[in-house]
C-alpha cells in the first residue's frame, strides 16, 4: 500500500465511520478501484485505523467518558448496548463471515437503508420533540440490538442502525447520534483487536513501513473524524436524514453498476 492509497482510505474512514452512509461500502469501492482490496494488509489497515476514529469520540466527549459523577451509569449503559453484538457476533460468526464476502448484500443494504432514510424524519417527528436525551437500560439494549443488524448485513452502516435504533427506543436525534458515537468505542475497539489478532494468527507480520502507514492512517482518520462528527450533529439536528438517504441510494447504485460492468469489487 502506497502512502497516497493509505491517505485516501484514512480520509474515507474518518469521513464515513460516524455518518449513516456505510464506511464499508465506501472502502470497498476505493480499495477495489485502487486494486489493493485483496491484500491482507489492506483489510488489517482499514480495521486498525478505526482506532484513530474512535479516539476522536473520546476526545470530543471527554467529559462524558470521564465524568466521575455519572461514570458507573454511563459505562453500564454502554455495556448493555454492546452485549448483543458481543453475544450474537460469536453465535452468528459463520453467517456474518458469509455475508461479509457478498458485495451485492452491501449494495442492497445501502439501497434499502437509503429508502428508509427518506422517511425517518417523518416517522420520528414526535420523538424529536419529546424524546429522551440519554438512554435508560432498555433503550440502550434496543440500540444495541439494532447494531447487530449492521453486523449481519454489511452495508447497513453501524451508525445508521444504531441511530435508528435509538430513535425507535425513544431518544431524540442528538441523543441517538451521540449514543451511536459512544457505542462505537467498545465495538470498534473490539473489532480492531480481533482483526489484528487474526492478521498475526494467519502468519502475517507488519514491516517497519507498515507501522508508519498505520500510525499516519490513524492520525489522519482521527483528525477527519473530529470534523465529520461535529458536522453531522449540527446538520442532523437542523436538516434531518433525507440527504443521507439519497446519498446511500447513489453509493449502492454505483456498487451495482461497477459489479455489472465487470469491475471486480472485493469485500475487505
How far the N terminus sits from the C terminus, by CA atoms, comes to 14 Å
Output the number of helix runs.
14
How would you sum up the major sheet? Answer: none
- Overall SS class: mainly alpha
Shape: globular
Oligomeric form: single chain
Low-confidence stretches: none
User: What amount of the residues lies in strands?
Assistant: under 5%
Domain count: the total is 1
Helix content: over 70%
Q: How many distinct beta strands?
A: 0
Order of helices and strands: HHHHHHHHHHHHHH
Mean pLDDT: 86
Which radius of gyration do the C-alpha atoms yield?
A: 18 Å
Please tag this protein with its features.
14 helices, 268 residues, 0% strand, globular, mainly alpha, 80% helix
Question: Briefly, what is this?
Answer:
The protein has 268 residues and is mainly alpha-helical. It contains 14 helices and no strands. Helix 6 runs parallel beside helix 10 (137-152) and helix 6 (71-91) crosses helix 12 (173-201).
Structure description:
This protein is an all-alpha fold. Helices cover 80% and strands 0% of the residues. Helix 4 crosses helix 13. The two termini are 14 Å apart. 43% of the residues are buried. The model has no long low-confidence stretch (mean pLDDT 86).
Give the topology.
Layout (H helix, E strand, L loop, with lengths): L2 H14 L6 H11 L6 H9 L1 H11 L1 H5 L4 H21 L1 H8 L2 H21 L1 H6 L6 H16 L5 H12 L3 H29 L6 H32 L2 H19 L8
Helix pairs in contact: 1-2, 1-13, 3-12, 4-12, 4-13, 6-10, 6-12, 8-14, 10-11, 11-12
